Amino acid sequence: MTYSPPTRGEQTRIAILQSAHDLFIRQGYHGTSMRQIARGAHIALGGLYNHFSSKEQVFEAVFITFHPYHQVFPLIAAAHGSDLDQLVHDAVKRMVQVVEGHPDFMNLMFIEMVEFKSSHARRLFSSLFPQGMQILQHFVDSYPEQVRSIPSPMLMRTFLGLFFGFYLTENALAPGGPPEFRENARHYFVDIYLHGILASVESK
Predict the structure, then answer these.
(1) What are the boundaries of each domain within the chain?
(2) Rounded Cα gap, residues 112 and 126, in angstroms
C-alpha cells in the first residue's frame, strides 16, 4: 500500500485539534477561546473558521479524535481465555491499559457530560453500538453454556458499567483509600461482575 502524506489542509486540521485538546484539558471548555485555539495551531483566526464553524464543533472533533475507542475495539476483539471468566478478565485488562495511556480522556468526558449533556457521546455510541455488539456476541458465542439468558444490549451496558465504575473509583477515590480498597481491585470488580456478592449454596 502506498503511503500518502497528509495534505496541507489535513495537517492544519491536526494542528487545530491538538491545540484545542491541550487548551480544553488545561483551561476547560469555557476558558478556551477560538482565538487561543488558532494561536496554538499557528494559524489565523479566519483559517480556523475555514475548518470549523464553532467552538462546539471543534470540541466534538476533539472528543471523537482523542477517544480511545480507536484502540480499545481491536484489543477487546483480540481478548482470549480458556473460559468466559478469563476472557472477561483479559478484555477488562486491555481496556484499562488503553485508557491509562489516555489520561486526559476522562477530562474530555466530564466536559462532554457537563457542558453538552452527553449529546456527542450518545451520537458516537450509536455509531459504535453495532461493532460493540458484534464483539460481545463473539464472547457469548465462544462460551454459550456459561452465559445467563440476558438481553445482549444489557450485557453490553453492564460491561461498560463495570469498566467505568472501576476506572472512576480507581482514579478519584483509590489513592486516598486504605490498602484493602486498592489491592487487586480490577480482579474483584470483574469477579463481582461475573459472580455477584452472594455466597453460593454450596459454601453456606
Answers:
(1) 8-54, 67-203
(2) 16
Residue 11 is placed in which grid cell? 495537517
Q: How far apart are the first and last CA of the chain?
A: 62
Cell numbers describing residue 194? 461475573
Q: Which long-range contacts (CB under 8 A, 24 or more apart) does 39-46 make?
A: 41/12, 41/15, 41/16, 42/15, 43/12, 43/15, 43/16
Backbone phi, then psi, for 43, in 5-degree steps?
-135, 165
The predicted model scores a pTM of 0.87
The identity of residue 165, as a single letter, is G
For the chain, helix, strand, coil in percent to 5 are 75, 0, 25
CATH architecture entry for 8-54: Orthogonal Bundle (1.10)
Q: Please, what sign has the CA dihedral across residues 187, 138, 167, 149?
A: negative
48 vs 53: CA distance, rounded Å: 8
- The CATH number of the domain covering residues in 67-203: 1.10.357
Q: Which long-range contacts link 188-193 to residues 24+ away (Cβ below 8 Å)?
A: 189/92, 189/162, 189/165, 190/88, 190/89, 190/92, 190/162, 193/88, 193/158, 193/159, 193/162
Mean pLDDT of residues grouped by 10 in the chain (204 residues)?
A: 78 97 97 98 97 97 94 92 94 93 91 96 95 92 92 94 93 93 96 91 54
SS3 state of residue 78? coil
